[in-house]
Amino acid sequence: MPKKIDHEARKEKILQTALKVFGREGYRDSNLSLIAQECGISRPTIYQYFKDKEEIYYYAVKLVTGRMFAKYASLAWSSDDNYMDRIKRICSEIMDTASDHEGELTSLVDVMLQMKKEGRDFNEIVMRRTAKLTILFKRLLRVGISNGDIIPCDINKVANHILLLLESSCFQVAFLDTFEMELSKELVANYLEFFNGQPKTTPVVNRS
Q: How many domains does the chain have?
């Protein structure tokens, strides 16, 4: 009986291998033949999954952001935490994920920069993928304001600020060896605390 092929597993293996090749050879000098060779499959087999290396990159962005959104959407609506704490937890999880997948993130950003130098810009696809996260933050802010967890604020502006802070952390993880994620997480938490409708109070210690 022929061995059953797990096509999703093979597709992801091609993706992971391609990211390594892109990072090592540079996007422009990489090709499907080299990716196939390092995957241990034939070039025609790769064509069953991807028509070119650009499609591989699109799939990489879609896969990474898609998994993240599914996870964080679940965190947003299946928790008993107040809405500000939910936003803080999602931000912390995103930054932890960036740290845990530093190599993949570096490869993705590196390819984006290489393509930009060649006059092609992937910003549109990245913005489309992160739009879901921005919408999620807006929904959490809106509900949080309505029940008093969050003070009234410009929802659109605050959601965009959160995304900018997260993007900054991800880019720094990708390029700075000395970057300290804990400091970045503290910065985001402090920013969000400004909008907390139920701020945590610190007990006053009587020193007399």
A: 1
Instruction: Please give the Cα distance from 172 to 170 (Å, whole number).
Output: 5
The predicted model scores a pTM of 0.75
Domain assignment of residue 8, yes or no: no
* 151-170 tens-digit pLDDT: 999 999 999 999 999 888 88
CA-wise closest residue to 189 among 112, 50, 94: 94
Q: Which two tokens stand for residue 54?
A: 């650009």
Residue 131 lies in a domain: yes
The SS3 assignment for 188 reads: helix
For residue 180, the domain's CATH number is 1.10.357.10
Averaged pLDDT of the chain: 82
In a domain, 11, yes or no: no
Alpha helices for the chain (secondary structure H) = 7-25, 32-39, 43-47, 53-77, 83-100, 102-117, 123-146, 155-175, 181-193
